[in-house]
Each structure stands twice: as structure tokens, then as C-alpha cells.
Structure prediction request, 490 residues.
Amino acid sequence: MKWIRIHPDDNVVVALEDIRQGEKLEELGVSACEDIARGHKMALREIRAGESVVKYGNPIGLAKCDIAPGAWVHVHNVRTGLSESADYTYCHKRYDKPAVSPRTFRGYRREDGRAAVRNELWIIPTVGCVNSVAAALVRDNQDLVQGSIDGLYTFSHPYGCSQMGDDHAQTRKLLAALCRHPNAGGVLVLSLGCENLTQDQFKAELGEWDDRRVKFLVCQQVEDEYEAGAKLLRELAEYAGQFEREEIPASELVVGMKCGGSDGLSGITANPTVGRFSDRLTALGGSTVLTEVPEMFGAENILFSRCENEEVFNKAVRMVNRFKDYFVSHGQVVYENPSPGNKAGGITTLEDKSCGCVQKGGSAQIVDVLEYAEPVRKKGLNLLSGPGNDLVSATDLTAAGAHIILFTTGRGTPFGAPAPTVKISTNTALFEKKGNWIDFNAGTVAQGEPLDEAGDRLLDFVLEIASGKKTHSEERSAREIAIFKDGVTL
Prediction:
């Protein structure tokens, strides 16, 4: 099959392979008026100027002019139909859960009862000034990575000082959340000593901690921060090295879901594959987390209808409206998306991108809506407030407690979050070209693999990752964070 009509109501099809000018789609009785690249759309019938272009059974924009049957449908003849405001009504929908047999993974059981998929040592700088010290401590203490200790990492960032208000609070909240992450068997909190994110503030944000698992070092208070840091890391390694992998129910997994470098196949192959995975994990009693709020604009009602009750619906509406206000307050239109790479891959409008993006949420009920860097509290599908930026949203998912992050992409990217980041290709060509980046190929769906089978295959793969199999980004030690910032830098 060279094309797909995703929903019976669609007035466009998506090319699964390049379609040449003059080529006839026999089943549809339409011939291509021009070349249609893989991932791009072709009109099935005449679409009059001002009429909705429909994909996924939803409007994804308005025709700028009359579009002939067989014509290429893209940014040159389609515009967004979004505006800065919208009214929402709760119309609850519920779908059956898939039947899934109980599953387990080989993980670590923390002393507080939480599960983990890695047993690593983390250095958390509270201020960017000590990034180089943290990097040197990681470089010079790799001998600690032995036995059951999976790695030693630090997460550089430029913040922790010269911030005020919400930015200061968000930096503090995000870094404390990383400090609590179960994948870290031991954490060294590294401070300078004169930053406005003081150690006392950090400890207050962190709350209770186990002093065997979390150690603190203020560089200005010691003569040799490298020697002092190495000593504390040895103590942390001694503690963390006591943990060994054991059998843990899949119901204890928390998996984050996001996309980046999307293309026209994202909403057809990789994202719905992740959606099938999410439905399976939540049916097992596990948790999944969907973020990237701006990439819900235009498709939010698909999610809102699945909020399990009106309280969750109202929280979801507030989350979306706050992000729209954030755009407007900065003089930006809410639909300033997709990116140039998205457009090159066949995504035309933000509605087009969003309708594909939300496919990662599958069909499960939404049980909770979380603030930025807020931990998952309920089993099931959660929405998490955060932007679309790859590094910011992946860091947000990690801070929320995601053991693993599933990252779908049609263009490819090498980055990795603090949590193991599984790259899932939307097309087989990318999987074959960038085998050093891509962990899982969902392009097989475009070649005929049923989505349910792809979802089963992804569940198997995630349980392998949870049991210790390394992602490609882990193999390259690609571990990065980015903190959401909105305000003044002093």
C-alpha cells in the first residue's frame, strides 16, 4: 500500500511511499496531479477555499484556495483554523482496555518501596557555576561503576543563580525532583556556596531524605572539592552497590511519552504504536505520562473526552488555557508551529501535528493532570504540564518520575534524557540510516504490521530496557537536562 486514508471522514490521504505525478490510486479513482512525497497529503476530492481539510477524522486546517482532486495538500494551500481562545464541554468517552497477561521486569527495589530500572550515581549541580567540578568528578571516579552500579552521571545546566520568582522556584523544584528519582541509587548535591539557590532552600524543597542515599557538598566550604567529592561518591557507591536486580511487576513502571522531529507518518506509525503500548501498560496497572501541551492545541478535545471525571477535565482545560495565555502574554500566536523539519516531513499545521501527537495517549482514561515537574501520583494515563521543546519536556518527564521515556521521531535526534530514552522511528528508512540513534522501528506499520502487534512488540522491548538493556543514547552517555525558564535573568 502506497497511501493510507486514516479515517473514513478524511478528505485527504497520506503517502506511505513517494507517489509520482500521474500515478493513479485505483481504489480511490484519483490520480496525483503532482509528485507527493512520503508523509505528505493528497486531496481525495475537490476541497473548496475556506473548507476544512480533514485528517484523523478531525479538521487540521482550512483551504486557502480551491484544491483539486489529486493535488498536494500542504502549507502552500492550507492554513490553520486555530485561534487563541476556545470553549470546552465535557463529553465523556470510555474505551475498552486491551486484555494483557501479567508481566514483570528485572529492576531494583528501593528501601522506600519504589521500583527503579537503573542503579546509577547522579551528581546534581544546584548552580551552573559548579558544572565543571561535577564533570570532573564524573570523569575521575568511573572506577565506582562496577557490580550493580550502572553508571555515574551529572546534569549540567546554567541556572540556580540570578533568577527570581517562578523561574527560581521551578529550578529548585526540578532539581529536587531529579534528586528523588528512583533510578538514582545515590545522589551528590553539589553547590557553590554563594548562589541564590541556597543549600537550605534546596533541602527544604527536597523534604525528607535518606543521608545514606543523598550527600551534600558546598565547594566554597572545603579546601579541595575534588577530594571531598570523591570521598562522598565512594560512600554513595557503597550504599548503592547493595541493590541487586529482582523480579518486579510491570504495574510499577512509569513511562513518559513524547515526540520530536515529527513527520507525516508520526501519527500513523510511531505515535499510535506508543498509544497501543500505553493502553497495554495502563491495563497492567502501570502509569504513562503525556506532555508537550502546545502540541495538544487543536486536538485537546480528543484527550478531554477521556478524562475520567469532570474534576480531571477541569484541570486539563486549565492546563491548556494557561499555556495559551503564556503564548499570548509574550505576544506570540498559539499556532506558531510546526517546525521547518516537521513541514519538510509532511506536517502542515499545528492541528495536523497535534492530532498526530496525541495518538501517543492511546485510548485509556486520563486519571490526573500534573504541574511542571510534579510526581506521578495515580496509576494510569497522566497529562503533564510542559512545553514541546525536546530537552525541556524530556527533563520534565524524568522529574515526574518516568523510569523510561519513549521518544518518537521521523527525522532523528541523538539526545538522551536522564532516564533511558528509547528512540522510535516513524519510518524504516530512518531506522536503517541512523541505527546508532534509533532503538525501535515503528516504520513497519507503514509496511503492513498491525498496530496491535507493534504495540505488543514495543511492550516487550520496554520491559527489556527496564531489565537493563541499554538504549543507544545510554551507550553514548548522552544525558542532558533543560529547565523551563520564563522570567528575568539578573
